[in-house]
Amino acid sequence: MGLLRFLIIAICVLYLVRALARIFLPFLFKKVVNNMNQKMNDQQNNYGQNTNQQSGRPEGTISVDFVPPPPKKKPKLDNAGDFVDYEEVKEK
Predict the structure, then answer these.
(1) What angle do CA 16, 18, 24 make, to 5 degrees?
(2) Read out DSSP for 2-18?
(3) Quick check: 39 and 33 in contact, CB under 8 A?
(4) Membrane-spanning residues where (predicted)?
């Protein structure tokens, strides 16, 4: 009797949660998407304003701020051992 009562209550709760999710989740997703869109627009506007204010140079000029490090020296292979030339021999 107790198991049957538990199953009936559990099924009713699951259907109720499913129905409420169908009603409220679209509103929640719209709100989240709108907030993310607003943040992205604000960030894009701030970036455009910051780059114009910080540069202090006329538009169209180029400056390089990064200089790559010099290439590392490769180890010499003189003491790696003897190397034998390979020749392919074809048989008739």
Answers:
(1) 100
(2) HHHHHHHHHHHHHHHHH
(3) no
(4) 6-29
The structure's pTM equals 0.42
State residue 89's pLDDT score.
Answer: 82
For the segment 30-47, the average pLDDT, to the nearest whole number, is 92
What is residue 75's three-state secondary structure? coil
DSSP of the chain: -HHHHHHHHHHHHHHHHHHHHHHHHHHHHHHHHHHHHHHHHHHHHHHHHHHHHHH-S-TT-------PPPPPPPPP-TTS------------
Summary mean pLDDT of the chain: 84
